[in-house]
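Example 3.
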Amino acid sequence: MMMGQGFVVQGSNGEFPFLTSSERLEVVSRARQALPKDKLLLAGSGCESTQATVEMTVSMAQVGADAAMVVTPCYYRGRMSSAALIHHYTKVADLSPVPVVLYSVPANTGLDLPVDAVVTLSQHPNIVGIKDSGGDVTRIGLIVHKTRSQDFQVLAGSAGFLLASYAIGAVGGVCALANVLGSQVCQLERLCLTGQWEDAQKLQHRLIEPNTAVTRRFGIPGLKKTMDWFGYYGGPCRSPLQELSPAQEEALRLDFASNGWL
Amino acid sequence: MMMGQGFVVQGSNGEFPFLTSSERLEVVSRARQALPKDKLLLAGSGCESTQATVEMTVSMAQVGADAAMVVTPCYYRGRMSSAALIHHYTKVADLSPVPVVLYSVPANTGLDLPVDAVVTLSQHPNIVGIKDSGGDVTRIGLIVHKTRSQDFQVLAGSAGFLLASYAIGAVGGVCALANVLGSQVCQLERLCLTGQWEDAQKLQHRLIEPNTAVTRRFGIPGLKKTMDWFGYYGGPCRSPLQELSPAQEEALRLDFASNGWL
Amino acid sequence: MMMGQGFVVQGSNGEFPFLTSSERLEVVSRARQALPKDKLLLAGSGCESTQATVEMTVSMAQVGADAAMVVTPCYYRGRMSSAALIHHYTKVADLSPVPVVLYSVPANTGLDLPVDAVVTLSQHPNIVGIKDSGGDVTRIGLIVHKTRSQDFQVLAGSAGFLLASYAIGAVGGVCALANVLGSQVCQLERLCLTGQWEDAQKLQHRLIEPNTAVTRRFGIPGLKKTMDWFGYYGGPCRSPLQELSPAQEEALRLDFASNGWL
Amino acid sequence: MMMGQGFVVQGSNGEFPFLTSSERLEVVSRARQALPKDKLLLAGSGCESTQATVEMTVSMAQVGADAAMVVTPCYYRGRMSSAALIHHYTKVADLSPVPVVLYSVPANTGLDLPVDAVVTLSQHPNIVGIKDSGGDVTRIGLIVHKTRSQDFQVLAGSAGFLLASYAIGAVGGVCALANVLGSQVCQLERLCLTGQWEDAQKLQHRLIEPNTAVTRRFGIPGLKKTMDWFGYYGGPCRSPLQELSPAQEEALRLDFASNGWL
């Protein structure tokens, strides 16, 4: 499940809310066929209802997912108490044939999976970790601290705070930026894991603006455009996501160029 | 489309994010069969992608919806600029066989449909109004003001600010509370429309706490529990929504009792 | 204390946080001298600490304030619970020689004076009302409803929701816009108080954009610039507030011109 | 200015908004007298207006402050653009006889000093660093990255993210928790500066809950109560801050005890 060891499909940048159920399964199935057997495939299977999430998780496992990454339901965020979220994830983990990774991404969902819920859920035998995209490193440190007795993996959800997350005890990352600067993000991981913090810091610094550009600043259209530049296939976004304007493209390019990546 | 003149299915309180596509259509179909022909049926057809929204809207029209109420897509709220939302709604309205009502509900979506987008969209021949659930009456007044030249209906999206919305120029409401206190909400409308503002004010005051109780405070579980109390069928919620605790039920009951409704 | 019956100095637009204590008193003193005796003078006396607020309130009363408008302390907003705010206002009201008006302005303070605190405080014999600038008309209605048994005056804190506030039971307003369009704001009040709601609505509509322009959109620099245009003395702002750019001035002008005021 | 090398008075936990101008100066003066000459004294001199901030800064320097820490003005946060803040700090730094440290503390002020403003201000010869209390380590890393060519010190504003801040390039910290666990916070600094990251991580983990307890969770009343427990003088808070309830005290104690500090 850790970066460099596998692949994630249908995280927030996979446009999963725009895909039909069968498309979602097909993405998993095709990714599985394309990947070497020893590479882990982590698939985003979250839906709004518990029942739909269970069904999607089971189906994704059947077509090849090694683990399921389950985003917090969010439309009724005012009612998503710790108790409700614990109930939801427990049900999903009980019924999932593959391990479950919690996924908290407040920029999209408008809610943080509360720390007390994470701690409770970390004790479930089929819940193996969390992808935390909120960027609050104090919170990430606290989660590491309070789940230490479990075999629970904390993963940084974005490349902007990857070094800081490793420093505080995270064991990996799931980073949109790795779609574009994959080897650099893996290099940053290696520098952290081998204790080369000065070099890690230099590299991390140069990744912050590119990372913000393909996430918060320009979103999926920015990520896809950059993938095109770097020789991958980014392709179009589904509507209502819109292509970048020429001025936005220019600003995006500058965020990479000024850090020496273009 | 106006309160007292019709019914809405699959607004936010209809738990639409928890329903499958076929369930969503069945709800519309059954409601159509149950309703007298002269009663308008407004159906919530919003999905995250433009394409899915178009398909759902067309299908709902086929099974009997008289108009479609389309909530703003929200998972990628950081990219939901006016331009993106105008594009989305224009496409949906172009292809919808029935009139479209915009739907802005920031408590659930984390975004307001911007006023400038509403004004632009009000000029589309197949967009006939907006349900605004945000409760910002200054904004509602501005929308009325700037769409005055169009035949565009502004509907209050909650009973807590219904009187104020009528006072500022709204022509109706779509109110969760009407599931419980239907005749009272209709009575409030009549008092407003006939200029009996003093009586309207007294009635409105007594509806604020019950309304907050079944929306922001206790959400759908509160609404359903109250429906049971008032002799309707509320029934269970789908998970991850949780039933109310006894203490919450007590507080809910008090919000109705202290205003003379129980 | 009601609009049309008096004047307010050192509300948020009076730049009170930029004035020294002696300047604050001098403003009150000079305003008192300039006003006819039968005109009420309401003076903003809020400070961060309870003790400073008491001292400022007493001093302002000595130099001629008829009542004190006391903004919520806000720097430690995380600790400003209902209990803390009730304690603060009770102490101030106990020691003030003149009546106290509560003042809630979340755009500046980042906190709303909670409704339960307002209801408790409304029972204090020396607390006579609240200026609510938040614009949440549901909340305003609830405050009117729950303080009805007291002789407690609810005042709209901005002209954008003045009509709606009257409709729901407010008895007056304290409006920045009245510095520029004073007679129009008073006219709106009269139309509301005499039940001429259609004319009131038309006038209210034309005041929303100008009001937003001199408050949320362009702030005090916008208000002062507009005062200059309308033949009053606006004058410079204290730093760090900055003058408007030419483009901002143009946009400000348009907000008045497009509604027929320039 | 760096932790372990000096002392700060009148940061947010010094209750500076509750002190009169003369009290603020007296605090600085007395601290200067109590401190060894070689210990740096950093004094919070921020006020809402530029003029008052300049005067306070000059006066504090006269009574012994070695440097001034200047919080962002915040009452008119809607108008505190980068341009306004750059103007404010430039004026203060131009006229201050001692070096200036920027201070961004969004939990109290409701605004972040924008990164572009920090970068511009870092070029001022009399602005030597920033205390950033927001806890966004991505932002802190970006500030380090973009001010690298200047001699500009980035200081973590809270002990919860101190290790992460060092890891990403901060050179010190100004931490409320150091009032209680001073040697432990200094120990954490040493472990970071000497590259003992594993031990640092263990220590950091045990400081997160105590730190949150004396800041966000229980604020100044919590900090003072804890100081009493640890043999320092915490003393009472000024009103409107309220003492902790017995239940809150118990929770506070648990946050320290469960991490082995009590």
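Chain C touches chain D at residues 12, 17-18, 20, 48-52, 73-81, 83-85, 87-88, 91, 107-110, 216, 219-221, 238-242 (CB under 8 Å). Chain C is about 50% helix and 10% strand.
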